[in-house]
Amino acid sequence: MTDLSIGRHASEERPIPQQPDPTDINPHAVVGAEILIEQLHKFYAEVKVLEDLDLHIQPGEFLAIVGRSGCGKSTLLRLIADLEQPSYGEIKFKSARHIREGITSDDIRVMFQDPRLLPWRSIEQNVQLGLPKHQQDNASALLEKVGLKDKAGLWPSQLSGGQRQRTALARALSHKPRILLLDEPLGALDALTRLDMQNLIEKLWTEQGFTAILVTHDVSEAVQLADRIILLDKGHIAQQFKVDLPRPRQKDYAFNELEQQVLNAVLAT
């Protein structure tokens, strides 16, 4: 397979830690990219944010990253998105779709806590941003999927917070990404809207098979959505948890037990 290295600094070869079997991750068609992170360091002057981090993300996997504020969660996401550059180390991608097909920045989309919609454009026009003309029909189809087809002609100011986040999700997915990066996108929503959005994200991930990486402070959300949860502490992966629960997930004894286990690990950092 061809790959695209975002890390511009050479690193020595080293073995990648064993991770869950990719056949356990998503039973549906997988178009997501495999991500290999090796010896990743990120410094800001004398401050070490990430240090000697190794991580292997399978194609189509849904990974959640948890940890206390300042542990490097959002920095790692920004490095994967090529919004920042590593101080040292490599981030490499491999396409699951075709052996000769590499991954570029066009295959990666980010959804932030703020929906970042243009207030002077309609909802449909916001979803169409960056799409070539022949692909703009994707916007209408995705607005229907996120339940906003009847809102297409409205302005962002006319929507609720949850509806604006649905628009941001449709905009991200209109580009058919291989990797979707979610940087606490549901943090500002009320509890019921948040649950609706979690269900919608899971549904679209299952249908489309992209690789998803979620940064969240909400441990319950991580257990609800992820195949695997990693806990960052002081720039290192402190622990990993495999979420071996059937989908759609119910908050039963097994769910609550894993949630408490992850929460206890976060509190111990």
From TrEMBL:
SMART domains: AAA
GO molecular function, one term: ATP binding
InterPro entries xrefs: AAA+_ATPase (IPR003593), ABC_transporter-like_ATP-bd (IPR003439), ABC_transporter_ATP-bind (IPR050166), P-loop_NTPase (IPR027417)
Region ranges (Disordered): 1-25
Signal sequence coordinates: none
Superkingdom: Bacteria
Keyword Cell membrane on entry: yes
UniProt source species: Acinetobacter kookii
Record key words, sorted: ATP-binding, Cell membrane, Membrane, Nucleotide-binding, Translocase, Transport
Protein name from the UniProt record: Sulfonate transport system ATP-binding protein
Entry similarity comment: Belongs to the ABC transporter superfamily.
Gene3D superfamilies recorded: P-loop containing nucleotide triphosphate hydrolases
ABC transporter domain segment(s): 35-259
Pfam families (alphabetical): ABC_tran
